[in-house]
UniProtKB/TrEMBL annotation:
This is Radial spoke head 14 homolog. Gene3D superfamilies: Leucine-rich Repeat Variant. Coiled coil: none annotated. It holds the Pfam family Arm. It comes from the Eukaryota. ARM repeats lie at residues 218-244. InterPro entries: ARM-like, ARM-type_fold, Armadillo, RSP14. The lineage of its organism: Eukaryota, Metazoa, Chordata, Craniata, Vertebrata. PROSITE patterns: ARM_REPEAT.
Length: 335
């Protein structure tokens, strides 16, 4: 018998009896019970029983437990629940979210990380993103406090949660000085941090106000530099921000001053079309070039590179082909 896990009853009694043991006074006993439950909830049938049986309503008390290990283990259990859509939906209708969100300030780093894993998974659903959206100002404040390399996992999860919520509504993050905060994360050593920061920045650059803030800040030179990053996803997300920003005139002019056209063209010439990881990078680059072609200086540069654009206009992938055809049409347009 495993001494770190509580004994598990047979069949349909396993989940109810284990949840009944969560009320025992000893923290060690609660931890053994939570460990056994975490093992069980890898089974979709057990998870369905947990969700439909109303057992989630017993968890808020454990989220305020005086023992940090119990709080952390409870969050890990909730993370397993949110692995399935039915679990995410059940969690949103339960009373778990308020005490869970308060643990963002927990003294235990492992507990905070587990909370963020749950919130990030919840944000996969539109309803979950809407529920977490009210926490964005707090998440942004936490990001401002993350200035060292000791809690990279926590920082990545914070950025991921902000990014997912901002795809639903960018206003809370923009109102919390989001562009400036994320801009400082673009230069971090960790590629995971750079990737998630650029992804969140791309979400913030969708509304016009976000585009303006990107132009007014000091982020564009860094983003242009990230187009040559070693990580393809970092390159892709940086290209997405530039694609959004060059829609406005200020963005076009600043990117042309930063000499972004040769960098984007180099990406087009080097990236293989058949690699699914680079498809979005190709599409974003082509769309950015299309917008830059609306400026006289951009069009003059791109007219010299029509053969490259024409080759991409014959791509097998329909999205790449369509984006390249649009670029050729804009570059060659005459009044």
């Amino acid at each position: 018998m495993d001494s770190t896990r509580a004994p598990v009853a047979f069949g349909r009694w396993a989940v109810p009896l284990l949840f009944g043991q969560l009320q025992q006074p000893q923290a060690a006993g609660r931890l053994r019970t939570l460990a056994a439950l975490c093992d069980l909830l890898h089974d979709p049938e057990r998870l369905q029983q947990t969700v439909t049986g109303g057992f989630l309503e017993q968890l808020p008390a454990l989220l305020t437990d005086e023992d940090a290990s119990v709080r952390t283990r409870t969050c890990e259990l909730l993370h397993l629940v949110t692995a399935h859509s039915v679990g995410r939906q059940a969690l949103l209708t339960s009373s778990v979210l308020p005490p869970l969100s308060r643990l963002l300030d927990d003294s235990s780093a492992s507990c905070r990380t587990s909370v963020l894993r749950v919130l990030t998974r919840l944000a996969l659903l539109p309803a979950g993103g809407a529920a977490v959206l009210g926490l964005v100002p707090k998440l942004m404040l936490k990001l401002q406090q993350q200035d060292d390399e000791d809690h990279v996992d926590e920082e990545v999860l914070l950025l991921s949660a902000v990014g997912r919520c901002s795809r639903l509504d960018a206003r809370p993050a923009l109102a919390s000085d989001g562009v400036s905060v994320l801009g400082r994360k673009l230069s971090r050593r960790s590629p995971d941090v750079r990737r998630e920061a650029a992804a969140a920045m791309m979400a913030l650059s969708v509304p016009v106000d976000g585009k303006r803030q990107v132009c007014e800040g000091a982020g564009l030179p860094v983003l242009v530099g990230l187009l040559q990053d070693d990580d393809v996803e970092v390159q892709t997300n940086a290209a997405g921000v530039i694609m959004n920003t060059v829609i406005i005139t200020t963005g076009k002019l600043q990117c042309l001053e930063l000499d972004v056209v040769p960098v984007l063209l180099d990406l087009l010439s080097r990236q293989p079309e058949e690699d699914v990881r680079t498809k979005a990078l190709l599409v974003y680059s082509l769309r950015a070039l299309t917008a830059l072609a609306e400026a006289p200086d951009g069009r003059r540069l791109l007219l010299q590179q029509l053969p490259l654009l024409a080759r991409r206009a014959e791509a097998r992938d329909p999205d790449v082909r369509r984006a390249a055809q649009t670029a050729v049409r804009v570059v060659t347009w005459t009044p």
